[in-house]
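User: Just a sanity check before I run the rest of the batch. Below are the structure tokens for the first item. I only need the designed sequence back.
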């Protein structure tokens, strides 16, 4: 921990100080909100359950203490490989018809047993790594993760995908490479579309996806969307109870949901849950305005530091890794408007990893430049002393 907090090892640049200050303050406030929840009589297991994913943000500290850029690269490779395997599993399930019914798809199914977030991150990372390295081996995971993402039929995932890809295009500015990559993906999707159309009934995968995405415009009649609206309305109303410090972790919201209840076997039921389909509303509800300020400050500080890291790494080895991590968090920031992505166990460790990995990458590059400068300076001094002696 002492190594992690040393100025040289932790930040490598003064602009990273706000990021880690806000990270630590946010986690400390989360612990306080868990205590507030217990004081208010909330079920202690709920309070601990909601605190746990926020504590994972502290993974940034041991990553900074123990990792270098090569270890960061290896972890990213593992994420890509694991996500590719998960995507293959999703494809197999989809082909075998093992899934849940998906609305607005023509009676197609969706695969809910896989986590779409890491598939999305891996797709964006593969694009960024291909922009840097042009290694064709990345095309396989790129296509597989894209199709694996389709099998989930998560509308918010494709909103995040569009935002992430757009961010890559704007930041990277490698238009010819990105155009070539998209042509390849289009051809791969056309081939997959034909195959899926022959092997699934009654519609093909991509036709079902099109119908699913078009259904976003029908949110007024979409029970899933109406469930979210009722949930957010109830959460905003409860925020007014304790707007500054929040209602505490473990707080349960109650609202009427128009969706189907498998327990009551009817449409429409009284929902009681700690879950909120919006990370920002969740933070405001449980942690108050103080938590929202710390949370948004932490995310914005990372964006600023990430932008600076991208600029420093441009045209250098490791550029694709840094760009991929930053655009993944940008994408996650958008997806979190429709789900609790920033405060769930399976995604928050990636956020902590991204914070630490970007800091490690820039710190190592900055230290390398400083070391070369000291070496050159020492050489000039030795030469000068030698001439003086002579």
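Assistant: Here's the designed sequence for the first item:
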């Amino acid at each position: 921990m002492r190594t992690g907090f040393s100025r040289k090892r932790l930040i490598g640049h003064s602009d990273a100080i706000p990021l880690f200050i806000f990270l630590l303050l946010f986690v400390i406030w989360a612990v306080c909100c868990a205590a507030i929840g217990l004081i208010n009589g909330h079920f202690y297991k709920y309070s601990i359950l909601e605190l746990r994913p926020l504590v994972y943000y502290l993974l940034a500290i041991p990553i900074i203490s123990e990792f270098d850029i090569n270890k960061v690269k290896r972890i990213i490779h593992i994420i890509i490989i694991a996500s590719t395997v998960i995507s293959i599993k999703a494809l197999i399930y989809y082909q075998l018809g093992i899934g849940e019914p998906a609305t607005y798809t023509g009676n197609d199914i969706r695969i809910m047993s896989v986590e779409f977030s890491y598939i999305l991150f891996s797709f964006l990372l593969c694009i960024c790594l291909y922009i840097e390295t042009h290694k064709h081996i990345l095309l396989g995971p790129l296509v597989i993760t894209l199709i694996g993402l389709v099998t989930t039929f998560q509308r918010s995932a494709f909103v995040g995908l569009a935002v992430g890809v757009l961010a890559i295009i704007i930041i990277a500015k490698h238009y010819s490479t990105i155009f070539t990559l998209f042509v390849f993906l289009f051809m791969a999707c056309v081939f997959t579309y034909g195959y899926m159309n022959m092997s699934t009934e009654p519609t093909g995968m991509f036709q079902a996806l099109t119908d699913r995405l078009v259904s976003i415009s029908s949110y007024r009649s979409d029970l899933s969307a109406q469930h979210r609206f009722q949930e957010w309305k109830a959460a905003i109303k409860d925020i007014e109870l304790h707007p500054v410090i929040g209602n505490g972790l473990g707080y349960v919201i109650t609202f009427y949901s128009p969706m189907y209840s498998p327990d009551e076997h009817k449409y429409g039921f009284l929902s009681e849950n700690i879950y909120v389909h919006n990370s920002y509303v969740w933070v405001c509800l449980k942690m108050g305005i103080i938590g929202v300020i710390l949370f948004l400050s932490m995310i914005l500080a990372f964006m600023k530091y990430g932008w600076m890291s991208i600029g420093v790494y441009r045209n250098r080895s490791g550029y694709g890794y840094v760009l991929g991590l930053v655009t993944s968090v940008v994408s996650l920031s958008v997806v979190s408007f429709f789900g609790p992505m920033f405060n769930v166990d399976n995604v928050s460790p990636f956020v902590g990893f991204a914070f630490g990995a970007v800091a490690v990458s820039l710190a190592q590059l900055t230290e390398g430049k400083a070391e070369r400068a000291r070496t050159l300076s020492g050489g000039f001094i030795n030469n000068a002393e030698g001439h003086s002696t002579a």
